[in-house]
Inverse folding.
């Protein structure tokens, strides 16, 4: 079996087993842009962006947990 | 309480046409805010621009450049065409992935400029989100096609989907910032008075 060499930006990042972690930067990016638009006082932006990222990730985790429970029970 | 009224440049906005702000926001993410002027808008523009471009580049890093799947082109980088025989269109979609190549391929019109435009967009809807990132997506599209012509296949399974999602979300976020910046340009007085008189009572509250 041959393994294709990894070339950044051309071939996919070899993170096959850790793909779930890609959720974190995406949520952070969405939170930063959203809060940058909504917040008048930008000095509060880092704290608020972290908080909303936490809620997004936590909410998705909770939804996954509930769905897993439903699948197991049903 | 800080005296925000004594900082006239803090959120002052120039009188810029909203359409110009929108176009600049598309050309370079965050540039719409930079045009508005004022320290807050400059900082906002830089934060938003850097974040959107980082998300777009992260998408390409995660899934490879082929996450930009250009409408009107097949997976080998060849043009998709709508078959035309003796000057009459059959409506059939032909591309270079099928061998032998259709004899009508060379004389048929490209799908993107003809009847197949909407069908091509419907086949690759993520591109609509990605193109909102601006010219950086056009550069990515050109690179993606040249890589495809070198025979490098797109990634499969999750990483391709995640990379595609990152690039499309970056574009959709840019659309939001374009709308927001254009709105601030259209209502400069409202924006100024909000910042000057009520700095952030609501902003510090709910996340």
């Amino acid at each position: 079996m041959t393994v294709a060499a990894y070339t950044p930006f051309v071939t996919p990042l070899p993170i096959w087993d850790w793909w779930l972690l890609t959720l974190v930067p995406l949520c952070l990016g969405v939170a930063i842009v959203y809060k940058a638009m909504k917040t008048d006082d930008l000095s509060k932006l880092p704290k608020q962006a972290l908080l909303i990222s936490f809620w997004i990730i936590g909410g998705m985790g909770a939804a996954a947990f509930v769905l897993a429970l439903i699948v197991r029970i049903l | 309480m800080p005296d925000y009224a004594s900082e006239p440049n803090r959120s002052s906005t120039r009188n810029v046409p909203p359409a110009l702000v929108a176009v600049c926001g598309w050309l370079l993410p965050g540039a719409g805010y930079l045009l508005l002027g004022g320290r807050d808008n400059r900082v906002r523009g830089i934060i938003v621009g850097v974040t959107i471009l980082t998300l777009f580049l992260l998408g390409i890093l995660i899934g490879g450049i082929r996450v930009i799947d250009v409408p009107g082109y097949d997976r080998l980088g060849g043009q998709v065409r709508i078959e035309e025989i003796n000057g009459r269109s059959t409506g059939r979609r032909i591309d270079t992935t099928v061998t032998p190549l259709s004899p009508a391929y060379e004389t048929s019109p490209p799908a993107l400029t003809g009847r197949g435009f909407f069908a091509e967009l419907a086949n690759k809807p993520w591109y609509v989100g990605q193109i909102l990132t601006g010219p950086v997506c056009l550069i990515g599209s050109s690179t993606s096609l040249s890589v495809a012509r070198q025979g490098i296949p797109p990634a499969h399974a999750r990483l391709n989907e995640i990379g595609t999602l990152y690039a499309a979300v970056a574009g959709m976020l840019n659309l939001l910032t374009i709308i927001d910046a254009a709105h601030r340009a259209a209502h400069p007085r409202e924006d100024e008075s909000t910042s000057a008189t009520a700095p952030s009572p609501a902003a510090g509250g709910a996340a």
Observations:
- Strands of chain B lie at 81-85, 88-94.
- The two ends of chain B are 22 Å apart (CA to CA).
- The mean pLDDT of chain B is 84.
